[in-house]
Backbone:
C-alpha cells in the first residue's frame, strides 16, 4: 500500500517555504497519487487533478463540500470518529473507506495524511493521499468466500472423512461428522491410529487377506472395505470405507470416506479441503516512488524502491533506471514522456529476477514548459498475481474432485434447469450424451413422479430459505431400471453472498434398498411357515392326548378280565 508520507512531508516543507518557482499546488498536481486537503470541519479546500480524474468529479463539485458526503453510508460514522482523532494526533495511516465515484459506484481506498499547523500551533489544514485498493479487497473477498464455502461443504457432508499421510497412514485431518460418529474431538482423533478406532483386526496387515488388499492399494488402486468401527464409549458400528490416493501440492495422501451402513446413513457428497496459507498475501504492499530526469536517469529513489528492487539509493542515483531491461530502454525513454495510470509491467530486480509491477507516472516540465523528467510510482503486485493463480488452481482441483467423485453431482440454475451432471450420474442413468439435457427442467422428464414431485418442492424450498434439504427417492434410468438415491440440495452463493445456483448431490443406495426389500419378504415367508407349523403342532398334540386316554381304557378292561396291563401309561 502507498505510504505517501514522503510526499506529504515535502508538501509541508514547501508550505513553510516561500518557493515562488515551484509552488505547493504545482507539486501535488504532478504527484501521481490522488491528493486532497481538508479544513478543520472536514470540508475540502483543495484537491489535485488526479483525485478528480479517478473519481470523475469537477473541482467545483468538491471544494467546500464535507468529506463524509462522498463516503458510503456505513463509513460516515467512522469518519466522524476518526477525523477528530486525526486532527489531535497530527498523522493518520491506512484509513480505509468506501468513497463514491460520480457515476454512483464506490471505490475502496486507503488514506494516509498529516495535519499542517499554523505558526501559533493551531490547526490549518490536512494533506492527504489515497490509494485505490478495490481490486485487492475483491480478491480477498473471493478467497475468503471460496475457503469458507469449501470448508462448510467438507464439514457439512453426512459421510465420515479421513485424510491420512503416507506411508505411515497417520490421521492428519477429519471432518465434524467423523468426530460426531466416534465421540472424539478432532484433536483427540488426530492422536489415534486406525487400530484405535477399530474393533478386532479389520485393518491388521497380519492376515493374508488384508496384506494382499494393502499391497493392492499401495500400487495405486482405489479399494472399498467394510470396517467394524469402535466409538469412544466402546460401542461398535459398521462403515463401508473407500480408500483413494490423492495428491495435494505435491504431497501424496490417502483420502478415506466412510458410509455408516449400520443405520443406512448416506452421504450428500464427499469433499476434501485443501488448506494453504494465504494470510498476508493481499496485505498492503509498499509502493516505490521514483523520479528521473529527461534521460531516464534516477534522481530520487525511495526506501520502498530499495525494498522492492534491492538496489540502494547510492547505487542508482544518476544512473539509468536499473529496473528496465536493456532491450526495453528505448521504449522506456518514450514512455516517461507520457502520463501512465496503473500499467502492468514486469520490472527487473537486483538479483536478476522479474516482479509484476503496476506503474503510474506523469511527465515533469520546467518553467518554459519543456520536458525535464518523470515522477512515477511502482507497486509490487506479484503477490496479487500469484494469489489469482492459486485461486484458479484451487477451483480447478475442486472441480476435478466433483467430476471424479462417486457421488452424482448436479448443478441446477435458479430457474431449475439442469446445467451440469457429474460422470457418476451420467453412468448410473446410462445417458449417452448428457449435454442434450442441459438447459432442460430438472428433474428430467423420464424420472418418475415419486421423485419429481418432492424434488421440485424441495428445490423451491432450498431457493427460498437457503436451507440444505435432503430427500430419499428412486429414479429410473434411460432403460427404465429403478435406482434409489439419497439426495442433498445445497444452495450455493456467489462471491457477493447472492444465491447463484443449487447443487444436488445424490448417492446411489439401490443395493441397500433391495437388501431391505429382500429382508422384508423373507420375514413374511418365515412368519407364514411358523403359522403352518403351529397348526400342525396343535393337531399332533390333540392326537397324542387321545391315544394316551385310549391306552388307559384298554388297561382298565384287561384288569377286569384278570389280565396284565398291556400299555405303560
Residues:
Amino acid at each position: 500500500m502507498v505510504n505517501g508520507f514522503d510526499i506529504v512531508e515535502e508538501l509541508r516543507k514547501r508550505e513553510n517555504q516561500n518557493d515562488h518557482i515551484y509552488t505547493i499546488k504545482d507539486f501535488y498536481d504532478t504527484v501521481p497519487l490522488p491528493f486532497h486537503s481538508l479544513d478543520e470541519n472536514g470540508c475540502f479546500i483543495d484537491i489535485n487533478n488526479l483525485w478528480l480524474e479517478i473519481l470523475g468529479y469537477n473541482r467545483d463539485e468538491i471544494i467546500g463540500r464535507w468529506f463524509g458526503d462522498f463516503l458510503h453510508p456505513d463509513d460516515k460514522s467512522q469518519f466522524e470518529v476518526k477525523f477528530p482523532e486525526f486532527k489531535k494526533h497530527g498523522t493518520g495511516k491506512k484509513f480505509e473507506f468506501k468513497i463514491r465515484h460520480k457515476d454512483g459506484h464506490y471505490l475502496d481506498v486507503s488514506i494516509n495524511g498529516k495535519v499542517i499547523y499554523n505558526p501559533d500551533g493551531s490547526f490549518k489544514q490536512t494533506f492527504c493521499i489515497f490509494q485505490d485498493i478495490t481490486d485487492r479487497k475483491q480478491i480477498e473477498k473471493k478467497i475468503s468466500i471460496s475457503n469458507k464455502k469449501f470448508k462448510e461443504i467438507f464439514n457439512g457432508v453426512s459421510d465420515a472423512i479421513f485424510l491420512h499421510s503416507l506411508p505411515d497412514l497417520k490421521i492428519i485431518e477429519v471432518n465434524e461428522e467423523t468426530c460426531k460418529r466416534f465421540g472424539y474431538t478432532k484433536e483427540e482423533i488426530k492422536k489415534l491410529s486406525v487400530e484405535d478406532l477399530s474393533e478386532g483386526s479389520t485393518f491388521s496387515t497380519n492376515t493374508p487377506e488384508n496384506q494382499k488388499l494393502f499391497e493392492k492399494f499401495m500400487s495405486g488402486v482405489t479399494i472399498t472395505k467394510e470396517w467394524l468401527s469402535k466409538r469412544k464409549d466402546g460401542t461398535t458400528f459398521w462403515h463401508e470405507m473407500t480408500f483413494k490416493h490423492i495428491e495435494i501440492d505435491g504431497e501424496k495422501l490417502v483420502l478415506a470416506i466412510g458410509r455408516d451402513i449400520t443405520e443406512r446413513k448416506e452421504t450428500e457428497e464427499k469433499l476434501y479441503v485443501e488448506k494453504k496459507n494465504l494470510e498476508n498475501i493481499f496485505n498492503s504492499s509498499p509502493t516505490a516512488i521514483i523520479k528521473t530526469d529527461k534521460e531516464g536517469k534516477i534522481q530520487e529513489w525511495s526506501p520502498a524502491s530499495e525494498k522492492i528492487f534491492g538496489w540502494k539509493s547510492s547505487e542508482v542515483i544518476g544512473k539509468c533506471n536499473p529496473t528496465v531491461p536493456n532491450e526495453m530502454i528505448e521504449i522506456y525513454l518514450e514512455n516517461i514522456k507520457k502520463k501512465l495510470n496503473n500499467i502492468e509491467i514486469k520490472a527487473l530486480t537486483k538479483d536478476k529476477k522479474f516482479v509484476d509491477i503496476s506503474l503510474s507516472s506523469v511527465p515533469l516540465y520546467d518553467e518554459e514548459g519543456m520536458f525535464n523528467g518523470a515522477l512515477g510510482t511502482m507497486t509490487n503486485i506479484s503477490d496479487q498475481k500469484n494469489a489469482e493463480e492459486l485461486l484458479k488452481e484451487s477451483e480447478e482441483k475442486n472441480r476435478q474432485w466433483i467430476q471424479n467423485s462417486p457421488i452424482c453431482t448436479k448443478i441446477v440454475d435458479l430457474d431449475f434447469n439442469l446445467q451440469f451432471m457429474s460422470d457418476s450420474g451420467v453412468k448410473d442413468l446410462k445417458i449417452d450424451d448428457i449435454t442434450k439435457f442441459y438447459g432442460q427442467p430438472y428433474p428430467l422428464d423420464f424420472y418418475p413422479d415419486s421423485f419429481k414431485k418432492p424434488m421440485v418442492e424441495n428445490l423451491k424450498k432450498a431457493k427460498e430459505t437457503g436451507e440444505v434439504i435432503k430427500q430419499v427417492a428412486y429414479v429410473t434410468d434411460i432403460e427404465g431400471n429403478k435406482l434409489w438415491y439419497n439426495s442433498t440440495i445445497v444452495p450455493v452463493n456467489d462471491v457477493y453472498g447472492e444465491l447463484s445456483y443449487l447443487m444436488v448431490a445424490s448417492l446411489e443406495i439401490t443395493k441397500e434398498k433391495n437388501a431391505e426389500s429382500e429382508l422384508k419378504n423373507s420375514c413374511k415367508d418365515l412368519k407364514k411357515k411358523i403359522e403352518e407349523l403351529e397348526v400342525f403342532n396343535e393337531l399332533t398334540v390333540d392326537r397324542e392326548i387321545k391315544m394316551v386316554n385310549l391306552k388307559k381304557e384298554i388297561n382298565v378292561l384287561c384288569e377286569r378280565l384278570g389280565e396284565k396291563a398291556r400299555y405303560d401309561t
Summary: The two ends are 111 Å apart (CA to CA).
